[in-house]
Write a structure and sequence with these properties.
Elements: H1 4-14, H2 17-24, H3 31-42, E1 60-62, E2 65-67, E3 71-73, H4 86-97, E4 101-103, H5 111-118, E5 122-126, H6 132-145, E6 149-153, H7 163-168, H8 178-185, H9 188-197, H10 203-206, H11 225-234, E7 238-244, H12 247-255, E8 260-263, H13 277-288, E9 294-296, H14 303-311, E10 316-319, H15 321-352, H16 370-377
Parallel strand pairs: 3-10, 4-5, 5-6, 6-7, 7-8, 8-9, 9-10
Antiparallel strand pairs: 1-2
Helix pairs in contact: 1-15, 4-5, 4-15, 12-13, 13-16, 14-15
């Protein structure tokens, strides 16, 4: 396994189709997911020569914490479907490489377990579903366990129709029919290992005091402006708002007191007509100013993509699907291999662009991306009405 594409290919052989498609699939015709990656391919970097780049630094500070690499692990639901014990393997990797890991509300491990495994590197991501009581209970659990960073996802008012899941009959819990049984039977290593470890489930929702069970298709529209105001007033740690592609929304979120904005279109899993997240990034950077913290995900598949995202305005990058494909390809060994590959590619990209420190990445290394450079160099917007 030498790249994300290798991980995808091998995972596709080892995982049941219903699981592989759940991870790789996106909304509608999956145009947005394809666009996320193709737009990265259109961004070019200016190579520089004869600079002293023998020693290169990849460490980055984000929201007051220093990490050894400029990327972390994005929040993803039900990671243990990719391969048993994926959550704990991700947490161990986050600790070993000193990178952040964000636990999803819909995770197959509990808030306490992730904090125990990953310590200060653990963040918690919140979905606000039909039960406001349960949502606030999750926040309180995160506070009790010592989480310092809370990520509120706001781009899932309703889960989109994902055609692969519908065609495969993907439900939680699984409803075993002939086709699904055959799918599992023809992938015995995944199936037997999963049986041995026990079927994964969204543990944080099952633990709700009010007995609320997880409904994957329930409305999550409770993440509105009023809720943001209440959450900001009650949560004293870092508050990050995830799923933003509108500059106008970004300005309002900043004015509401959020500590950072997470630019993302949910990996193309929500609105199939959404712009590529990388195209929204420079617009949002221009809107919020040069010093406001921005996270980014959606479409990142290698180290060059990480450098491109930083050059387009991100302060830190999060990686989602590739981590799960690496686990599906070769378990924890595959995950560690891919993280090392991402780190090495990022470092090599620095060298090729004449830089020796990741903090020196700027729009200056962008080559033919005139519109993006112009957006990043425009006078910064100061208010929502400017």
């Amino acid at each position: 396994m030498f790249c994300t594409e290798d991980a995808v290919r091998i995972a596709g052989q080892r995982q049941p189709k219903v699981i592989f498609d759940f991870i790789e699939g996106a909304s509608g015709r999956e145009v947005a997911a394809t666009r996320n990656q193709s737009r990265f391919d259109e961004i070019t970097l200016q190579q520089r020569v004869m600079e002293n780049v023998d020693r290169r630094n990849l460490s980055k500070t984000f929201l007051g914490q220093k990490y050894n690499l400029p990327f972390g692990i994005a929040p993803m639901g039900m990671c243990n479907l990719a391969w048993p014990d994926t959550d704990s393997a991700l947490a161990q990797a986050a600790t070993n490489y000193n990178i952040p890991i964000c636990l999803s509300s819909a995770a197959s491990s509990t808030i306490k377990e992730m904090r125990d495994w990953a310590g200060e590197n653990a963040w918690f991501q919140l979905y606000v579903g039909g039960s406001m009581e349960l949502s606030l209970e999750l926040v309180e659990r995160a506070r009790t366990e010592g989480y310092k960073t809370l990520v509120l996802t706001v781009d899932v008012p309703q889960v989109s129709r994902r055609l692969r899941d519908l065609r495969n009959g993907f439900t939680m819990p699984f409803r075993l029919g002939p086709r699904l049984l055959w799918d599992f039977a023809t992938h015995p290593r995944w199936s037997l290992t999963s049986i041995w470890h026990g079927a994964p489930s969204p543990k944080n929702f099952k633990l709700g005091k009010n007995g609320t069970h997880f409904d994957r298709n329930a409305s999550r529209a409770g993440a509105n402006w009023n809720f943001l105001e209440k959450l900001r007033a009650s949560w004293t740690g870092n508050l990050v708002i995830k799923g933003v592609t509108s500059a106008r929304d970004a300005i309002r979120i900043k004015q509401a007191g959020a500590d950072a904005i997470y630019v993302s279109n949910h990996g193309g899993r929500q609105l199939d007509s959404a712009p590529a997240a990388i195209d929204a990034l420079p617009k949002i950077r221009n809107a919020v100013g040069a010093d406001y913290p921005l996270l980014f995900d959606s479409g990142v598949r290698n180290g060059e993509d990480i450098v491109k995202a930083l050059a387009m305005g991100a302060d830190f990058v999060m990686i989602g699907r590739p981590m799960l494909f690496a686990m599906g390809a070769d378990g924890a060994k595959g995950l560690n291999s891919l993280i090392k590959i991402f780190a090495e590619d990022t470092s090599l990209t620095l060298a090729q662009t004449g830089l020796n420190d990741i903090t020196a990445v700027s729009p200056d290394i962008l080559s033919n991306n005139t519109s993006a450079v112009e957006q990043l160099q425009q006078p910064l917007l100061k208010t929502a009405t400017s």
